[in-house]
Structure formats: structure tokens, C-alpha cells
Amino acid sequence: MSVLIAGLVVFLASHSVGYASPAWRARQIARVGLRPWKLAYSAISLAGLVLIVRGFGMARADAIVVWQSPAWTRHVTVLLTVVGFVLIAAAYVPATRIRAALGHPMTAGVALWASGHLIANGGLADVVLFGAFLVWALITFVARRRRDRDAGVVYAAGSLARDAIAIVAGIVVSLLFALYLHGPLIGVRPFG
């Protein structure tokens, strides 16, 4: 469990610097330059992600069950995860109505993904992993929306065509991940 927790701390802390300490981040970028900052940020994020995946696998070996979820919750997980992937895709497709409505669709997508997985997985490792991501996503979403409101940020209305691109991309990527990557990376095949 310690490897999982270490990975979560590294990954989520690195993803919190931008809103938790924007002045410090700006000073570091000014000191080292944008490209080296992004390289270091990416390396730290990747290290955290590797620790999370490795630690989650190790922690699942000592299966401590916190609650037993009914079988129907798997359907809820699939639905929330697909919608989460659509929101994450909407963060990368410019000028979507989804972004205009939410401001930070990636963070909302992470919250849905984590919520869905918490509903269907009641092991201690699951609660730690998905609970940490859910708490981080909720705090981050609120902080970023507050920052936008204080700065008077308004997102462009976007178009239905851009929304369609985000929706199709999110569905395709979620299916590809569930069918081909989830099993080898996580050790669980969502669809058997």
C-alpha cells in the first residue's frame, strides 16, 4: 500500500502545483524555462503514475474488502467512465460547448471516472486509489472554477461539431482502453 500512496502523493501533488502555488510555479518557470519545467513535470508525473500502477497491483494482492458491491454497479461504472472519457477528450478539443459549460472538463471527467470505480470496487486499494482521485478532482475543480470566476474568465460557446468530435473521441478511447489496455495494465478486464 505504501507504493500506491507514494505514487498518489507524487502524481496528485505535481498536478496541484498550478492552482495551489501559482506564484511559485511561475518563478520556477522563469528560473529554468518553460521547456525544462515541462520536461521535469512530465518526468515526475510519469514516475508517480508508474508508482500508482505498480502499487495498486501490489496492494490488490492483499485484498482487504471494505464493502461488497452488487453486480449492477459495474454498469454504472461503465457509464460514468465513458462520460468521464468524453469530458477528458473535451478538454483537448478546442471550442466545445462542454468546456464552455464546465470550464474544466478534464477535472470533472476524472471525478466521474473515480466515482464510477468507487461504486463498483470496495477493496481497500480501490478506496485509496479512487477516493484520492475523487477528492483531488473535486478540490481541483472548485479551486479552478473559483480562480476563473475571480479572474473573470469566460469560455467561448463552442460548436456542436466540436462537441461531436469530443464525444466520439471519448467513446472510442474509453472502449480501446477497456478492451485492450485495462487488462494488461491494471490486471482486470472490464468486459471479461
Topology:
Elements: H1 2-14, H2 17-20, H3 22-32, H4 34-61, H5 73-92, H6 97-102, H7 105-120, H8 124-151, H9 160-186
Helix pairs in contact: 1-4, 1-8, 3-4, 4-8, 5-7, 5-9, 7-8
Keywords:
80% helix; globular; 192 residues; mainly alpha; single chain
Oligomer: single chain
The first-to-last residue Cα distance is 26 Å
3D shape:
globular
Largest sheet: none
Question: Using only CA atoms, what is the Rg?
Answer: 18 Å
> Which regions are unreliable across 5 or more consecutive residues at pLDDT < 50?
none
Structural domain tally: 2
Give the total of beta strands.
0
Mean pLDDT, all residues: 93
- Helix content class: over 70%
Following the backbone from N to C, one meets helices and strands in this order, namely HHHHHHHHH
With helices defined by DSSP (H or I, 4 residues minimum), what is the helix count? 9
Beta content comes to under 5%
Structural class: mainly alpha
Structure commentary:
The chain has two domains: about 1-60; about 65-190, no CATH class. The chain has nine helices and no strands. The chain has helices at about 1-15, 15-20, 20-30, 35-60, 75-90, 95-100, 105-120, 125-150, 160-185. Helix 1 packs antiparallel against helix 4 (about 35-60), helix 5 packs across helix 9 (about 160-185) and helix 7 (about 105-120) runs antiparallel to helix 8 (about 125-150). The model has no long low-confidence stretch (mean pLDDT about 95).
Would you summarize the structure shown here?
This protein has 192 residues and is mainly alpha-helical. It folds into two domains: 1-62; 64-192, no CATH class.
